[in-house]
Write a structure and sequence with these properties.
With 927 residues, the chain is α+β, with helices and mostly antiparallel strands. It contains 30 helices and 12 strands. The protein has a 6-stranded mixed beta sheet with strand order 8-7-9-2-3-12. A 4-stranded antiparallel beta sheet has the order 1-4-5-6. A two-stranded antiparallel sheet has the order 10-11. Strand 5 and strand 6 form a beta hairpin.
Amino acid sequence: MGTAQRRDRHKGASALLALMSAAFLLLAMCVTLVTVGPAAAAGPVGDCTATEGAVVAVDFGPFGGKVERGCDTTPTTGYELLHDAGFTTEGTQHDGPAFICRIGLGSGTQYPTTEQEACVLTPPATAYWSYWIASPGTNTWTYSQYGAMSRKLKDGDVDAWVFGGTGSGGSTGKPAFTPDDVRAGGSTGTPGPGGTPTAPAGEVDLAAAAAWVSGVLEDGERVVDEGAGTPDYLLTTEAAYALVAADPEHADIAKVTAFLAAHTDDYAYPSGKDGAPDPAAAARLALLAEATDADPEDFGGHDLTASLTGSVCAAGPEAGSPAPGCTAKGDFRNAGYADGQALAVLALVRAGATPPADAVARLARLQCEDGGITSILIRPGEYCDGDPATTGLAALALHEAGGQDAAVTRAVAYLKKAQREDGAFPGYTGSTTGSVHATGFAAQALRALGAPAYADAAVSWLSREQLDGGGFGFEEDATGPALYPTGPAVLAGAGTDLARLTTQRPGPTDPPATEPPTSRPPTTGPPTTEPTRPAGEGPDLVKGVAYLTSAANLRQGQYYPVGPQSPRADFGLTIDGAYALAATGLDDDKLRGIVDFLDKGGKDGDGKTLQDWTGTGTKYALGGSMGKAALLAEAVGRDPRAFGGQDLIAGLNAAVCEKATPAPDRSCAAKGAYTYAPSVFSQALAVMAQVRAGEEKAAREPIAYLESLQHDSGAWPSLIPATGDSDVDSTAIAVMALDLVGGEKAEKTVAKALAWLADQQLSDGGFPGAAGNSVNSAALAIQGLSLDEERYASRITRAQKFLAARQNSDGGFNVAKEGRRESNLRASAQAVGGATGISFGTLERSLDGTTPQPTPSPSTPQIVTPDDSAGGSGGIVDTDGGGSGGGALASTGVRTGALAGMAALLVAAGWRVVVIARRRAGVGDGT
């Protein structure tokens, strides 16, 4: 789950004084095009405590200095914390202040120095300022999945910045000091649970809930999403659970169970009757069978119990050649998420089978330091962020499996601490909004695990959120009901849970009498490409386009800015938006406005141009950026040889590397790579642009290099040079490029890649990406799989439904299934275009007949305060004085740099995700 914004804070006179004192620096910035973040007066570390304020430590050890720390008593973002703690930062010329290239202390020297690193482009992943975070009460560092501007802080958080390189997923390169070493006031240990919440008594109206659920069913047997022609099996199981809990004798229970039994192949065996099961779907059906007195060993012609037991991964990637769908030993193959793992364990226990020990242990390893359990099947060392819904379900499964007393006790403590005074639970870390879904699962677990007072408070809150018709919305104060949150809310209201749900015992089960819980003993016209999306499937593209073209998002109808208050254009995101408009054809006039702006040079409010972004004709020409811009020109009928005042095709031809350049020159990764193209995305975009321009000969070596990056599994890595990871987004874009190239070899390569891509689909139709169950990844996967639409039609449909479920009322899309429901421009652009299934290699949209958009009057560029947002030698020094090592630190002369693709730094107003080894998100990343 992502972190949530806690509160907005505007700097007053102190920020103004800081800007005035930095006038000469700002003047220099306008000349050198480097953005410098000034330091505020540092708050003494003593002003913060272990539970109030946030602390940041910066390790200047590689430059002959010490670990310096400072604090912010009213923390907002990681970026603001650095500056309010007394540090200064500088971004790269290409990416602006969001990509932190240098850090200094007060008026002292910033490191690395200009002699050591130009900070023009994003330097390599072997030497950069890596960003580490620790939550209150934890004493281990986690590599931040968010950039400093996007990390929203809470009291007690600790940040660290360390110069050097990191391993895959932050597995190496951690600070040499612990969070407790720098935390204000030292260690506090794990925070204990808060007091029992106070909430008035309340009960869920089970009869009304049963009536609403029954009304949603078609023919009393299935759920069909609005506008869709096929059943939603997952929601059909949720409806069945709710009916069993609310009215065990309801006539529709038998109908729904019979329907699901008749469609077991379709739901739980997507690879065919004799193929491997979807573990989450098989577990859901098994739990329904167990609750309705059916036989899970003979349900829909399948032994669901045997299928689950036989689908546990014997090894993960560390074994060298793991089975597809296995991220670690003990996974239920293709489970993808912790809820699937927990449901499978729970289903086996209820069936009287012994869940494999590796599967139970794998579920327990998903527990974070604070006791919460993460929703993603993470690997060791990866970012761990629990949420109440996953924690409740997983704790219940671990309790039923037995042998996990310590984990269950910590999970209960986490739930108690996460509960609001009114009984509600937030959906994710940092949220202040009550989630019906999370509260339902948390209440089920708390009642079963010996905390009835907490469960009663949760049910009381749920009773106040029940809508007039009997259903529940997703969050507090919702006005529309949905089945997904209604199911767990009804189970909680009935005093039961998935481990005890049954038609035979309608009343609640008495909870254990003692606390903490004790687990059971182990049981051991013109060219135009039209969308190919089937009618009634997928997201609402009209609403999606309206969101992308709204005045609040599309600055002056010309470009998307890097931040809400920034005059600077995000050229990569702007082109992403144009791709989406071209794919849908729903607002060609707005598309022309963007294209005309770029074609005329693309000068933004900060004076930056498209040429500044691509570097065409300079020694820093970026192959991926040139390819991306050229591809847009080709798609809309403009001349890529004269677009934005530049010959992008000549620039691409000149950017093809003849050989790898030796360090410290990192312009060319290999023969056939493009200059400064650090990812498969960049390579594929440039290949497509060259081929579409008729430059097949010039593209011959780049095509061969792209082909050489493919793994034996069929997947592509995210980075260049390859890091050994396998990435959905990169594989999808690579197959689009090679499909355009054509030929027998390319056909075989594409077919192999599509088979791998299809195998990555999760049970809910989504695909794994950098942000979790990612909207970007699902959209790109649709585009890739649509290259063989006949073979992968059902998977495409499932992915389109996944996107539809991530669309918000404003037409925009969430970044991922996890985290808060909040529309994100980059995810929305990819979702809208990707949902059409049109490949970037064949995208065409004529602008004939469109009207030139009004040219906005020029405005004065603004000076904008950046948005709110470490191992080494020597001691730890506070920025408010004391200790040695103060401001200016001696330079070691070490060759330095910043992240080339492995650190995730998000631009203030949207996702500029640069992958950590095996993860990547979005067409716009880095290009």
